[in-house]
């Protein structure tokens, strides 16, 4: 119970810290996705995302150009996370399945913030359980940090003397389109249905 409580408390703090990167503003009139947005990003959507180099669950070094070949839903977390990450990834997988029913093929992507334990093999096992199309990405600590910094996410390993440490982290999911980059974020309280509706709007507006 102590471990579970610590994880929930840590993620809650991380989510609040990560939330400082965003503000709810009316979209600008020249935004092609204006009708789809629930809010705007402080500094503009161009301030989120960008190039990254990571290692796929098959052990291959990949870049963002290799990964974002279709609309993608990115989530930063870790496989040892006892509750939040599994719940969020299940929610994302459900949204992806709803989008498939609408004729939209969106790839769920899970990026580890715990490269010490999340080897490609561990990531493959986790993503296979979550969704057949989910792609797991890990890498060196430097690669993971660079990707996290690009997406303005937060993570921090809790002090521990054993292998069962927890990692505080932010909990946003990010919609990224091949020709547009990052376009929208989703908080963890959003339902699969609400996510699918908004993502479908973005995909239609982009002609993807």
TrEMBL record:
Disulphide bridges, residue numbers: 81-85
Pfam families: SCO1-SenC
Single GO MF descriptor: metal ion binding
Transmembrane parts of this sequence: none
InterPro entries tied to this protein: SCO1/SenC (IPR003782), Thioredoxin-like_sf (IPR036249)
Keyword Metal-binding: yes
Annotated residues for binding of Cu cation: 81, 85, 169
SUPFAM superfamilies: Thioredoxin-like (SSF52833)
Keywords: Copper, Disulfide bond, Metal-binding, Signal
Keyword Membrane: no
Signal peptide extent: 1-21
Similarity comment text for this entry: Belongs to the SCO1/2 family.
Name by which UniProt lists this protein: Protein senC
The organism of origin for this protein: Actibacterium mucosum KCTC 23349
């Amino acid at each position: 119970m102590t471990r579970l409580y610590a994880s929930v408390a840590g993620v809650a703090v991380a989510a609040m810290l990560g939330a400082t990167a965003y503000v709810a503003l009316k979209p600008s009139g020249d935004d092609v996705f204006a009708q789809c947005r629930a809010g705007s990003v402080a500094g503009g959507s161009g301030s989120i995302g960008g190039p990254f180099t990571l290692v796929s669950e098959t052990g291959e070094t990949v870049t963002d150009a290799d990964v974002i070949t279709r609309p993608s839903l990115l989530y930063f977390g870790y496989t040892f996370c006892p509750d939040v990450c599994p719940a969020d990834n299940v929610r994302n997988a459900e949204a992806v399945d709803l989008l498939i029913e609408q004729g939209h093929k969106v790839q769920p992507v899970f990026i580890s913030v715990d490269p010490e334990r999340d080897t490609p093999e561990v990531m493959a096992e986790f993503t296979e359980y979550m969704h057949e199309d989910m792609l797991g990405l890990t890498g060196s600590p430097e690669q993971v940090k660079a990707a996290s910094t690009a997406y303005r996410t937060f993570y921090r390993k809790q002090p521990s003397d054993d292998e069962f440490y927890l990692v505080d982290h932010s909990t946003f999911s990010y919609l990224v389109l091949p020709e547009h980059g990052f376009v929208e974020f989703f908080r963890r309280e959003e339902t699969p249905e609400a996510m699918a509706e908004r993502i479908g709007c973005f995909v239609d507006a982009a002609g993807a």
